[in-house]
């Protein structure tokens, strides 16, 4: 992208990036994945075993084929079962606030937490979490919070084989470990959507994989 082209929400992406970076850099629990291409951090023991189990049961209760309640755009990449948790559930609210707190972001820029369950053979093909601002859907997303800045994702169970989170451009493959929260900045330090954040949920080979995801916007999300 040329320097003169206007990047929607660039200033906000830059500002939020700096704010969260500062927060994570002073968090002794946050381990930075060693790469210069993107800001990716893992936080171990973010959720207890009991919390993970409770969340997997909740996902079982709400999971449906992803395409039933997602845009065709996302459904093309994801074969797992997904479900929105009840955002008013006190347990979900508490988890959600704890994620906000790790990043140091206000609750009103966060999307609702989503749960995901992958059975053997299911995957999330390589994709970026940030929005392509030349696509039709951007007209709506621009008005309801704008570009996505950070992603938070928690692994909820042990997967027998497969189901890694693979940053394909960077060559970092993160093995699912229950209770670990993975967070990354979808933009560069300059506030431009970062192509190197391309990532996949690789196919589960044996067992099942449960995760939760929370995406953050640059502006108040509605
Ligand atoms: O399941 C994974 O490892 C990746 C999930 C993901 O990329 C997402 O929910 O945006
Ligand atoms: Fe993703």
From TrEMBL:
Keywords: Dioxygenase, Iron, Metal-binding, Oxidoreductase, Vitamin C
Segments passing through the bilayer: none
Keyword Metal-binding applies: yes
Cofactor(s) required for function per UniProt: L-ascorbate
Enzyme class (EC, first level): oxidoreductase
EC number: 1.14.11.2
All copies of domain Fe2OG dioxygenase, residue ranges: 98-218
A molecular function (GO) term: L-ascorbic acid binding
One Pfam short name: 2OG-FeII_Oxy_3
PROSITE patterns: FE2OG_OXY
Source organism, top-level taxon: Bacteria
Protein name in UniProt: 2OG-Fe(II) oxygenase
Lineage start: Bacteria, Pseudomonadati, Pseudomonadota, Alphaproteobacteria, Sphingomonadales
């Amino acid at each position: 992208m040329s320097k003169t082209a206007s990047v929607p929400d660039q200033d906000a992406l830059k500002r939020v990036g700096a704010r969260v970076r500062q927060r994570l850099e002073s968090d002794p629990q946050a381990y930075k994945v060693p790469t210069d291409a993107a800001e990716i951090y893992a936080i171990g023991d973010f959720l207890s075993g009991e919390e993970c189990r409770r969340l997997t049961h909740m996902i079982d209760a709400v999971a449906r084929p992803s395409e039933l309640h997602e845009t065709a755009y996302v459904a093309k990449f994801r074969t797992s079962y997904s479900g929105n948790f009840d955002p008013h559930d006190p347990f979900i609210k508490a988890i959600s606030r704890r994620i906000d707190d790790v990043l140091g972001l206000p609750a009103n820029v966060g999307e609702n937490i989503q749960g995901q369950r992958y059975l053997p053979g299911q995957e999330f093909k390589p994709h970026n979490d940030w929005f392509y601002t030349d696509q039709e859907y951007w007209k709506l997303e621009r008005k309801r919070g704008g570009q996505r800045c950070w992603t938070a994702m928690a692994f909820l169970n042990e997967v027998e084989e497969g189901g890694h989170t693979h940053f394909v451009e960077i060559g970092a493959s993160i093995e699912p470990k229950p209770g670990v929260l993975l967070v990354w900045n979808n933009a560069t330090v300059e506030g431009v959507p970062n192509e190197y954040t391309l990532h996949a949920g690789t196919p589960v080979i044996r067992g099942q994989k449960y995760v939760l995801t929370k995406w953050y916007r640059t502006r108040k999300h509605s």
